[in-house]
Amino acid sequence: QTAWRMKLAERILAAVTPHLKEADCGGYFLMGDQTWCNRAFDGSHGRGIIGLSFGIEERDMWSELISQKFKLPVKLYDCFIPPAQSPPIAGKLPNGTKKCSGLDFICYANTYTPYRWCLAAQEISVEGKWYTTLI
Question: 61 with 107, same domain?
Answer without folding.
Answer: yes
